[in-house]
Amino acid sequence: MTATKAQAESYLATKVLTASPAELRLMLLDGAIKFARQGRDALAAKDYEGMFKGFTRTREILVELSTTMRRDVGDPTLVERTQALYTFMMTRLLDASHDKDVAPADEVIKLIEYDRETWALLMDQLASEQRPGSDQPQPNAQAKSYTPFTAHG
Fold this sequence. Notes:
The chain has helices at 3-18, 21-44, 48-67, 76-99, 102-130, 141-145. The protein is an all-alpha fold.
């Protein structure tokens, strides 16, 4: 392993170990986007092994996101709907693989990007509400700690 690769892996390990659950979820979404794009691009190039690797890693991340949601916090309906969305995305990746069609993969990428964008906006909003001197109204403690999405169930 090269020194640069070792440094990058060390940095990533430190980043993961020191990240909050919300930051870990964002990192998982970034990974899902990256691997879905890799799989999609490999499919377009008729590199079916690359497609398989990219889509498999994306599905693994979607399973992780789905199974680590906490039903005991917040609205269980939100959790169920989000899990159903992740199941739909996994199915669409299988459709793309089976049909050798990039359109379902493009659909999944757009959905994950939207999920990531929404999550990043929520993180920004919560961070601004928690800053001292913020002109945003301070939510109660229960609302501040609410997130059914964790990286560790």
